[in-house]
Amino acid sequence: MTLLPALPTHLEAVTERAEAAIRAHADACEEAGDVTPEAGAALRASGYIRLTLPREAGGLGASLEEYAGAQRRLGQAGAALALVLAMHTQVVGAAFQGQTLPGPMLAALAAASREGRLVNALASEPELGSPSRGGLPRTAAVPDGDGWRVTGRKTWATGARALGLAVVSAATPAGEVVRLLVPPDAPGVAVEPTWVEALALRGSGSHDVTLDGVWVPAEHVAPPTPAHPASSAWFWTALAATYLGVGFAALETLTAYARKRVPTALGAPIATLPQVQEAVGRMATELTASRALLGEAARAWDRGAGPGALPLLGAAKVHATNAAVAATDLAVRTAGGAALLPALGLERLLRDARAGLTHPPADGVGYGGLGAALLGAGKGASPLS
Fold first, then answer.
1. What pLDDT, in 10s, does the model give residues 198-208?
2. Could you give the angle at the alpha carbon of 379 between the alpha carbons of 377 and 382, nearest 5°?
3. With a threshold of 0.70, does the pTM exceed it?
4. Of the candidates 121, 65, 80, 89, which has an alpha carbon nearest to the alpha carbon of residue 14?
């Protein structure tokens, strides 16, 4: 049963190429603890980074529902590199749908996407923690002639060495938050290799990026603006789909292993054991339910993008990441000792799935937001209507 629609031909082609690039380079990136130059080139060459850029800007114009389907497949191919592409596509999708950046900055994002340059938003900092919790960045932007100079440190810069452009959040002397477009090869920008032996997503190269008096022209600085719901919608969908893909990868891996594994004492594949059948059934049910929820939430956004469609997307992200964690854990339990070795692949999936829990919204926020919307349904349309 298909719960996310088949992709149109033009989206299918770039998704297939991105899947192939991820599968070809995932192991090398995992071993290197970084996005290798070859992997970065393959991701760019796939054309996937045009997926969420509107057609009128030279992109492929994927809807949020189409994006969810494509990104889940990438997560199933390999979470670390899938997340590199997820960060680019969610930034571009949100910026254009929400018009959250001035025209010159949108034009620069469009050009980067068409030219094959990866983009990410750099917002997290050592002291700040998750930007979703509020607080003022320590990274500072000060006026300098017909531009600004920015100084600070950003953490969790997924794909840091492979980026061609970064959207950097910084605080002004007036205590306002601006966003600046910074090329990683600009004078004063450096990548510090802090993503070493990480628990999860080792191949994502999510190192720190430091900025030391980096000059940015005024046309590439966005003034303070209220948060737009598109930013959350595309970000949460990117995360939900990517980590849901990890869960499906665990289901695929366990199923294949159970069919081939024939203990001498049993004399038949362990797929014949009721407890293995139950585990696979539980995993498939939970993952399929989560995929259906994500599909419904994304369709609701496409029907009527706005604040009212956000609660279901927040809950879908929380449900998807928890489903991935539960599925990978059950897969490891069911496979037994073989799951502890890298050869089977389940131990990497188990580690990568855990990373989904660290992204916003947290469980309480995601489920609480949907509950609050439903309890206040008299003030507006229900998220489930």
1. 999 999 999 99
2. 30
3. yes
4. 89
